[in-house]
Amino acid sequence: MAKETLRILHTNDLHSSLEQWPAVTALLKKQRLEADSLNQEVLLFDIGDHCDRVHPMTEALLGKGNVKLLNEMNYDAVTIGNNEGITFSKDQLNELYKEARFSVLLSNLKHRDGSDPSWATSSKVYTMSSGLKVGVTGVTIPYHFFYEPLGWNVTDPFIELEKTMSELRSQVDFIICLSHLGMSEDEKMAKMIPSIDLILGAHTHHVLENGEKINNTWINQSGRSGAFIGDVSISYQQKDDNFIVQVDKISSRKVDSTVRDEETENKLNALIFEGNNKLTNQVTVLDSDLVVDWYNPSPFASLVSEGLREWCDADISMVNAGVLLRSLERGPVTLKDLHEICPHPINPCTVMISGERLLETIRQSEQKRMIDFALKGFGFRGKVLGKMVYDQVEVIGTSQYINEKNVLVNGIPLRRDKEYKLATLDMFTLGRLYPTISSIPDITYYMPEFLRDIIAWKLTKFQRNDVNL
Prior knowledge:
It is elongated, with a radius of gyration of 25 Å. A hairpin with a 5-residue loop joins β6 (123-127) and β7 (133-140). It has 2 domains: 4-276, Metallo-dependent phosphatases (Purple Acid Phosphatase, chain A, domain 2, 4-Layer Sandwich), CATH 3.60.21; 281-468, 5'-nucleotidase,  domain 2. It is 31% helix and 26% strand. It is built from 15 helices and 24 strands. The longest helix is centred in the C-terminal third of the chain and has 18 residues, at 451-468.
């Protein structure tokens, strides 16, 4: 039997950069046509974070518009990223793929009773016309502290992969893992689970121009925001009752933003129009402007900090002014307005913080480098962190070095040995932005509400209070 070729096309981490999607689909269609002309079969996969609620269409349609776009391109399978997994409520995620015409491959997300969600399966076998069998599985990054409050049980992906491999290996000729774990975990996977032939990766947004090979396993990952697509060529030849399979070529192909698919463009515009209509719902009517200033105390940031403290029933709260992208003008406030000013997939959280740690946090937050810091990641979609705004915390005096005498908590001087319940944003518990907070082990996350949901709640309460005055 002569050698044949299977083409694997893949996308990852679009993050709802939908302005780029017609260019992505134009290139995908071009590569499909090229494969067809060479009598090559094609499999098409997405490796998660296609949805991102930073885009108003994804927000309004709760990701279902993204699923329709994937349907239009006849994807064979996807796995989920953290944006699908933890920025939707459990009910919303259970509904997300109801109309999907592709498989959702995911082995490490379970209900609390250990059962699998109805919309996902741990693996699938694709049989090519020649008889070649390709086994595909998927895993996502196990953010336990976010999945558990949502009602999910996210499990160790490596343990689940070992189980899946024991079932798949004897059934198939080639195994692919759709991995939303990140590059370092993919490299670890290649070393620990050699029965996986190809890992298509995501999450860390690496661009591998020609893939990476570890032992006998190939890895590919193709950036973010639709700047690249992945393209893998696999050759195979039957010998006796088996197939000899090898990866011939791996690349991340640059997407030309000027070459766009008209059919996709029309579908996308219709979905955006549908989404915008849903976001016209009115939240409240403001009697006066609510102004935010990223670099100085401002009434809007103070209102948000107060609302956060109240929502979380905390002693104190802290919010960086940069989470509010603009002020709100007097008059009607819609869901679209709130999404525009606060598009971040950021949840409230609380920690018990000592006066000692709180004092150090305040000192750090007052530094100009922190106020001007252009944070990327951790859900933040703003420009700069901006000034930290506290509720029930007052910094008094003009001392350049802040000590406990300069800080009042609920009108009482701060005590270094006292524990305070602090309401803040989940991005401060991640990474090392504020080590005084991120190093606290006991964190309570309030989900599925985003900060903009708290703002909506506070604005309606704020207006009612104004009326009662």
